[in-house]
Give the backbone structure.
Amino acid sequence: MTVMAHANDQALVVLVLELQNESFAIETRHVHEILDPVPITTVPGADHAVDGLINVRGRVVPLADLRLIFGMPAQEEGRDARIVVIEVPIDGDPTTIGIRADKVNEVTELAAASLEHTPRIGLRWDPEYITCIGKRNGAFIAVLDMGRIFSRLVNGAQPAAAA
Amino acid sequence: MSGNDPAQTYRQEAADLLDQLEQALLDLEHTPGDADLINTAFRALHTIKGSGAMFGFDAVAAFTHHVETAFDRVRKGEVAASEPLIAVALAAKDQIRRLIERPDDVDGAEGAAILDRLAAALAAPANTPPSATTTWRLRFRLPRDAMAMGTNPLLLLDELRSLGACTVTADTSAIPPLEMLDPTACYVGWEVVLVTDQTRSAIEQVFLFVLDEMQLDIQQLSDRAPEAKPAAPPAHADAAAARTGSSIRVPAERLDDLMDQVGELVIAQSRLKQIAASSRDIQVKAIAEEIERLALELRDTTMGARLVPIGQLFGRFRRLVHDLSHELGKDIDLVLSGEDTELDKTLIERLADPLIHLIRNAVDHGIEPPAQREIAGKQGRGRIALAARHLGHEVLISIGDDGGGLDRALIRQRAEEQGLLASGTYLGDGELFQLIMQPGFSTAHEVTAVSGRGVGMDVVRRAIDSLRGNIDIASQPGQGTEITLRLPLTLAIIDGLLVRVGQGRYVIPLSAIEECVELSAEDDTRSRGHTFLNIRGSLVPFIRLREVFATGSEPDPFQKVVIVSAGEQRVGLVVDQVIGDHQTVIKSLSKLHADLGAFSGATILGDGTVALILEVAHLVEHGQQHVDTRQAAE
């Protein structure tokens, strides 16, 4: 089974994280590491969704809050909060970004059969931000398109609110 | 790595030699007949040819051979270093470069044409007056490995014979017993009595390529000819010897890596310092201090190793001005000063394009055509001055021309047409000239191949901005324009002042700070917006960073004002607390934050948190704008 899934280039290895009790998946090829909460420096004047800076092993890395990009309300950090450090291309340049997560669940494999193209309607999140929909433990889970999310942020597109 | 590839090494060396050659040729234009310059050119050509043949660059060697022969004749005084000869030598130099870099695309006919012109230039008659003969006694001894290094003593002797009648005696005293003899070593010394009409320097010429390593003693036995040359060996040989003995080639990436590592070390060291400060262990404190001292020294040494004299860059522009002025039919002198001013190599690399742009502008738009200059009562020959100097923690690079100056009315008209300026707005010169750096702004009436395509100064400004530098423009109608670039010395580590605003900590570059004063209660209670401080009689606007950064917290009871300057303008930054100086390793901001003008970068503090570095020029501009709007409103 597993071998089969690997052989199929549609299979995705993803990290599952939670934002406001909702699960999302990020492809592990983007993920560098997962950190416990660290002190955050606020950048005055920056877009609220990315107005933090953190020190990741001597590098200054922007910290993004996907909850704000998705139009969720801001929330206090819980005890399970983590920072997922990812690297995504922004306009072609690989950029390291930290992402706040209320909880990080697991690394899992979404088998090819369970992957579906993003439906244009009936989705709570802007379909532009989602690569595909997978099925995990019998429930649907959105695989986020991190590159597009941040490219849109840099290029001044308005963060879309929940429909 | 490519360092061991002999062909690559040859290309690098040849590139350096070609640069030397070009410099020597351009200098020769001004001082024809300078023996040192002719020798430099000849040496460069000789080495390019010799090593070229050795490393399989046969076309290079074959072509260079002709040019070398020409310069050998110049060196011997048979041919004068005339202007046509130098012009064709410059063309030949470009051809050699092409042969080395892109041998496949080289047009053979062009090479042949250059050689024809070379032959024509050589045909000009020489005018060396014959001189009386002198008798010299030479004693010389070559280094042991001379033959292994490719020197043939017999050829040297032959060359001496070509100068005049020779009596050669071998000095065999240094030859060891047979069992200790290395058959490839050169043990023999020579004593030569030479009767010649040539000068001492002509005799030294024979040993040109071994002069640095050998022992040579030349004595004049009869003095029937006037001898002007001093007895000391020529200075260039000493300088060359000093250079070869004391420098090595290091790939640029290694220096970059070293700088990164020093940056990490400085950050780690500031963490150690913080921990040591709260420790009671006297030994920990002592080690922390020792490491701080070493880290700072290492930082300075590393930054020093990255410094390159800007003369390298300036040298390239001489050719640019030479070619451009010929192309445009203008007569222009390029006057360089401060070539030994040292800058970080990255800075120098990134300055090349903006400077080329500025010089093209000066040649094309700055300097008027000769006829127009004469009407204006100026010398027909224009002048462009390129100067560099250090000023505090900055480097100033200025490009001045004695041309027509910027046309204020035209700039204003253009700016109004393009909607950059409301009609009738008052602007001082400084601000008006800044407008020419707006994207798409160009006052050139016609498009020429050289410049004036509407993209220009904005590109220069963007390049200088990215180096955290500023541009000042000064211009007098009819007298010329001077553009000054002000740049920080380094792109990697700066001295900063750490301040606190609300909960956030920020670094202000120390080089921009003039002084710190306390914000008095009466200044404070005045309007909450932008207002003025009286600093020894002059009014300085101040900005409350708490408001700019919207900290939303209560101000500290005793606020401080840090007075910073950018160019001519000053502004006070009100902060809650001045924490102290901080070695700031500059980390650039990601694309997500790149468009925030208020910050030029970030750094990591001793406790591991991130602090933002304030972009002083932006804040000063911001402060002044508010002053202007206030003044406009009043």
About this structure: The radius of gyration of chain B is 32 Å. The CA atoms of residues 157 and 168 of chain B lie 8 Å apart. Chain B has 19 helices and 21 strands. Residues 134-223 of chain B form a domain with the Alpha-Beta Plaits fold (CATH 3.30.70.60).
